[in-house]
Please model this.
Amino acid sequence: MFKRNKLYFILIIGLITTFACSLTSPLENIPSADSSIPEESEAVVIEGLCDNPIYPVKQNATWTYFNTGGPSGDFSYTDTITEVRSDGFTLTTTFDNLTRTQEWACETGGLKALEYGGGSAAITTQSANMEFNTLQVTGISLPKEIVPGMQWLYSLTLEGTTTMPDGSQTNSNGTFSVTMQEVGNETITVPAGTFETIKFQSTTTMDIVGEFQGIQVPMQITGSTITWFAAGVGQVKSISNSDFGGTPFTLTTELQSYNIP
Model:
């Protein structure tokens, strides 16, 4: 289970992310942003509080993804919108032996993830397991209106406990922040098909502080991601560079199949 929780943190970098997302990690070993961004373009806008042009919020909508390059090997997962309300929705992510739910809010500015991967999210490093609850959310995960070159911020304030290998526990707190920017359009081919996409560049930082034997011990997890979204479909691909517990890696996520009712 710890392995799956570790992978779930990586997915948050790419999805909330990713959305998704501060700026401490260079974008190396992933596609660079298009140097030419149109100076003038029509904004992408859609009506309705939960409607979003590049992320369809529909009851029972599903997306199945496959990930390669992570520290725990290749894996797949399925996202399902299991409940839609007038002011939000529930996103359920299913792994082989782990299921997480995450609540989202629909606001006039766009879609906002209200939790870090679920009501209580776990992160496991080589030496500790951390459980967090979300105290505060600021910013927007995915705006309703997206214009060329647009940049936005999203952050969470977290509180929880850290369990060490010997079983001892300590209180921990931290922040998770994302900076995202629209960087152009690109045609992308994945197993689910070929799509005309909008490309986003994001950087993430998670700062955690725990107290051990009266000493404040900080830890930082950083990442950078390129994500591609297709209108009416959602996320079709992402490539993330992260440093997790001192281990750098590049994770590629591709859409395998989807169903939008």
About this structure: The helical segments are 2-14. The first strand starts at residue 62 and ends at 68.
